[in-house]
Amino acid sequence: MSNSLAIATVTQALALLIESNIGPETDIAVKVVTRRPPADPPVEPTVNVFLYQVAPNPSMRHHDLPTRASDGTLLKRPAAPLDLHYLISAYGEEAELVGQRLLGSVVRTLHEIPVLPRDVIERAAERPHLAGSDLALSPQRVRFTPTVMDIDETSKLWGMLHQTPYTLSVAYQATLVLIEGRELPAPGVPVHERTVRALPFGAPGAPEPPGAGEDPPAEPQPPEGAATAAEESPQRRVPARKPAGRRARSSRTSPRSTGPDSGKG
């Protein structure tokens, strides 16, 4: 959380971070400025840091709602979550590719140090126009991530800069900057008395157990006049089948005929 100077403090701290990490590949004097790209490109090596958009953070914009009670009393200090969008351009001698060399240093720095260091924020807050900034005390850290812009988006962005020639640049997003309100919430009423009781179910004054006093669910009854299939169909007795093994055994053990013709052959 921080006050209203957080946006300007992030911009100044970003410029200081880039300025202190230009070398050692670039052995020339480089000036880092925080302004919109100039209409007349400078001749000396220059890195231009331009904040072109401030937008609410989509994932945190409703995080602190509601902040007031029904009677209007402030319950929670409101905070506005913001994302800062920067356009970083580089200028210099085209024959020596100074602009490309400077942009390479910018990309390396923000990839190596994506989170804004606290000591850099403190150095930025030492400027007279940023006196009173408390961004360094905020537990929320500011992180820089590159923004991918196609040709159409780049053309629209530079088209808004009237009479400003295009130059090689990169875009970055700073997340998350929280700006707090000035009004302090009213302190809560202190607890005057604490009453804690432990009573078993059934004791006087004890709550009823879950489900007590409720009628048990009635069993479902079949519809009137409906008969089961066993009642409607007559019962038929099925004769038991004699096992095949038993029939064969009885046929082998049956007595032979003793008639008068049994010994004729």
Automatic annotation (TrEMBL):
Residues 199-265 are annotated as: Disordered. It comes from Streptomyces yaizuensis. InterPro entries: Pvc16_N. Residues 238-250 have a biased composition (Basic residues). Pfam families: Pvc16_N. It comes from the Bacteria. Coiled coil: none annotated. The lineage of its organism: Bacteria, Bacillati, Actinomycetota, Actinomycetes, Kitasatosporales. This is Pvc16 family protein. Residues 9-192 form the Pvc16 N-terminal domain. Residues 199-215 have a biased composition (Low complexity).
